[in-house]
């Protein structure tokens, strides 16, 4: 099927970034943009009650929406942006396990993920120049019970885009872009949401609200949810790069990397021949300095040699954090994905 740049078949390409993220460099990614369609409530002024309203069009909200569409369940999905991924940022998730791939298979997008992504099963761990541990998941019997591979690496925005297209194919779910929820009220029977759009605000009601807006969600405060947050000391510089050298398609981990002042490094290949390399920072490091392009290039030269031709796609800092709620449901609102629990670096 041809890939064209439309709401149902967007094409991704690289472009100059336009974002507000600090300390980031690189060509970045241009993401598909979906059109804002004024909902009927803006002209009718009627308050419509829906069985399910999903707030947040990231991978969690879109996966739920696609699951409901597959079952023929009507729902509305509200997202404050008009694209997938995060504008000007790197891919958030890149590594998808066999269980996740089985879910995507049921939803009808696995073949596209497998075609675009990178399959791997071998991991190696190094201390300095010495390999101290390795594994091959294909040799473990529990991974042979599925038709999906142990892992596929692919940028998260590709999966989100595939989910959007699949939802359009299935119907039943109304995706409303550029729709920011600005207020919530609820009682024992329903929840009422205020939605802000480029064409004005309107009100919508729902029997159930699924909050999939992420760890900075306003729903925690609106619902009076108890949230626990723990920030770790670990900070990393993420480098998404292409280069002329091609290491093995394996996950490589250094617990002491000589090319990173004996701190940890993770190395993965993603789609489009882009490598994700995570460099652990020193405790007192300045993220603005560590993420500078000349500093990143010097670090890459130490790792891959002076003859490696490097194309920096994106670079930026990342800090570990954990966050969780005491209750996954408060009244008519359910917390899902990062809204409910975050465990860095696993999501």
How is this structure best described in words?
With 347 residues, this protein is α+β, with helices and mostly antiparallel strands. It has two domains: 41-120 and 146-228 and 322-343, FAD/NAD(P)-binding domain (3-Layer(bba) Sandwich), CATH 3.50.50.60; 232-320, Alpha-Beta Plaits, CATH 3.30.70. 20% of the residues lie in helices and 36% in strands. It contains eight helices and 19 strands. It has helices at 41-44, 59-70, 98-107, 110-116, 156-170, 219-223, 287-290, 293-304, and strands at residues 48-55, 75-78, 95-97, 118-120, 122-127, 130-136, 151-153, 173-176, 180-186, 191-197, 200-211, 227-243, 251-257, 263-269, 275-280, 310-325, 329-330, 333-335, 341-343. Strands 1, 2, 8, 9, 10, 11, 17 and 18 form an eight-stranded mixed sheet that branches. The chain has an eight-stranded mixed sheet with strand order 6-5-13-14-15-12-16-19. Strand 14 and strand 15 (275-280) form a beta hairpin. It is globular, with a radius of gyration of 21 Å. It starts with 40 loop residues before the first helix and ends with a strand.
């Amino acid at each position: 099927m041809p890939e064209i740049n439309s709401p149902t078949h967007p094409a991704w390409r690289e472009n100059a970034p336009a974002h507000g993220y600090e300390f980031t460099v690189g060509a970045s990614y241009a993401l598909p943009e979906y059109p804002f369609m004024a909902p009927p409530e803006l002209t009718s002024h009627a308050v419509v009650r829906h069985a399910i309203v999903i707030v947040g069009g990231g991978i969690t909200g879109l996966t739920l929406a696609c699951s409901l569409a597959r079952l023929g369940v009507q729902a509305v999905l509200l997202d404050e942006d008009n694209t997938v991924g995060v504008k000007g940022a790197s891919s958030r998730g890149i590594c998808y396990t066999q269980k996740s791939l089985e879910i995507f298979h049921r939803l009808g997008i696995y073949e596209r993920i497998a075609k675009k992504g990178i399959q791997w099963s071998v991991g190696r761990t190094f201390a300095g120049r010495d390999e101290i541990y390795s594994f091959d998941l294909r040799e473990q019997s529990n991974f042979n019970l599925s038709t999906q591979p142990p892992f596929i690496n692919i940028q998260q925005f590709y999966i989100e885009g595939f989910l959007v297209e699949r939802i359009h194919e299935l119907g039943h779910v109304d995706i409303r872009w550029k729709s920011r929820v600005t207020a919530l009220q609820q009682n024992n029977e329903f929840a009422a949401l205020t939605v802000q759009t480029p064409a004005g605000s309107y009100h919508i009601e729902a029997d159930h609200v699924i909050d999939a807006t992420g760890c900075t969600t306003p729903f925690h405060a609106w619902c009076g949810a108890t949230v626990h947050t723990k920030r770790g000391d670990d900070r990393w510089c993420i480098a998404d790069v292409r280069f002329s050298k091609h290491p093995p398609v394996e996950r490589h981990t250094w617990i002491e990397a000589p090319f990173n002042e004996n701190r940890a490094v993770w190395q993965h290949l993603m789609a489009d021949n882009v490598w994700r390399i995570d460099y652990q920072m020193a405790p007192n490091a300045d993220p603005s300095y560590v993420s500078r392009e000349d500093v990143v290039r010097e670090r890459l030269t130490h790792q891959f040699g002076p003859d490696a031709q490097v194309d920096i796609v994106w670079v930026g800092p990342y800090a570990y954090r954990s966050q969780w709620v005491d209750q996954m449901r408060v009244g008519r609102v359910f917390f899902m994905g990062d809204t409910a629990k975050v465990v860095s670096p696993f999501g």
